[in-house]
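Hey, resending since the last one bounced:
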Amino acid sequence: MSKTVTEENILTRFIMPVFLVFVCPPFAMLMWHTCVNLDGSFLKLWDEIALKGLFGEIYDVWAPRFFGSLMAWKMIGIFAALQLLLMRIIPAKKFTGTITPMGNLPEYKDNGLASYIITFILFFACSLGLKLFSPSIVYDNFGDILGALNFTALVFCLILYFKGRFAPSSTDNGSTGNFIFDYYWGTELYPRILGWDVKQFTNCRFGMTGWAIAVTSFAFAQYHIYGKADWSIIISAALIVIYLFKFFIWESGYMRSMDIIVDRGGFYICWGCLVWVPAVYTSPVMFMVKHPVGLPLWMALVIFVAGLSAIFINYWADRQRQVVRATNGKTTIWGSEPVTILAEYMTETGEKRKNLLLASGFWGISSHFHYLPEILAAFFWSCATGFSFLMPFFYVIFLTVLLTHRAFRDEAKCSKKYGEHWEEYRKLVPYKIIPRVL
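The structure tokens again:
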């Protein structure tokens, strides 16, 4: 047993963090290079690697833009400053996250949707109205932007490591003594700098808003290259923008999700949202820029409606749980009184707390049913360009693996947290995502 635990610790606390920290940053750059310069073909990437060697290929792609460019730094600086400013100045009601293991209750401002809308208004006003820059500016400078973000995020995560060690924002902090794992996982659960919540900034305001602005810019890039934008890229970008609009309606719910209440502010979350999101999450639309397929309007409408339906169901599922918890179960789900379990748990400080577990509506189908429409939405905004290439589907494949893994992680967390109450819940809802399958 001791050997098994030790081997598991070596894998999760050393081998896996080392692998991800050293592989993901260059892979992000290779994703951009493959989409923009290699026709979106992983086979062409493989041919280049066979010719130059892996390190030679990484050097040729990454080294010229390792520190980005002056334009990239200007764009990143202005965008980051805008998001920080909007986080601070937009008036909004405050809400609290989930109480932490150490008994802390993080507080946020619910102004994400207003910030999202204002960002788009400014983007269109400055590009199309005032003509201060081309609306394709993000695509035109994306390699340098990723290079600058990669460098900045790697350094920023190091700063977060030392901050958590020597100047933590709350008592939810600590070090394992393993620098690699602490850098990867983070040393603080809720790091804050000058009053700004780091994860709300990196995950939501920079990562998610940046994702939406990027794919919008990509659609304009195709228009500038070919003189028109194909329906495939229009509906794909539109679905992502709408999906992220939904995200910001639900931002208060996201701030109570596993990304926030379990994952610390380190490489895994912060680098991921600053670099992996723009490099990988945008890849279906980035691929489409140079691959217009002449998608007919009727087919575009079918795909768009299907994607929109998946986004709505995803929001509806999240909304059901929010309403049940906000009303303490005094509501209806699909016309009936909700089936709930009042689960008790203890914080690490010994304080007894209670939470409602919902076992009806979408949450009676499976414990993570909302992952299914989220994966389907990603599939629909990826399939608009056809099935000839793997690249447009890399994100949906990654998302499927990520959410499946997250479902198992959440199962372990909830089982430990709620104990017998979770066992009671699992009897009512035995499936994690897909009934009779998983």
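The mean pLDDT is 95.

Sorry for the duplicate.
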